[in-house]
Amino acid sequence: MIPLLVAFSKVTQHQATGNSMMAVCATGSVGAYTFGFGGELDFVAATLLAGTMIFTVRSGAYFGQTLNSDRLKLALAAFMVCGGALIPIDLHLRKSRESQSTSTTSNISSNDQLNHIDTASEELHSTEPTYPEQQPPSISDVSPGKRPFMEAL
Known about the structure:
This protein is mostly helical. 75% of the residues lie in helices and 0% in strands. Helix 1 crosses helix 2.
């Protein structure tokens, strides 16, 4: 987003970075709201994670403001290259985990595997398709077991 803002608008590198941070904050808030009401947010863990980040964010933002535009571009490029380099490592780790889980399940007889596949296929075809709702569910729509977000508040 930052390179596009700098390339196609009349903002500086620093303004583009600030605008991007604000956009991430807004979209992250909506995403957290949606996950929270879906029962997929551990409020305590999220609070601890955010709490630890608060101690370093100011120094990072200050450091970014002290860099000139060329150095800030270089820092962003280095961050993107390093982040991109992690993708093949992540894929390799996922494949190795999948192969480990496959090797542990290979002891099951082939008949058991076929029965399991048939059962799963029947369950898949017997259910009605569900479509996402247009609006986030209200608190009364969420089952009591799926409210860790609201209970933590």
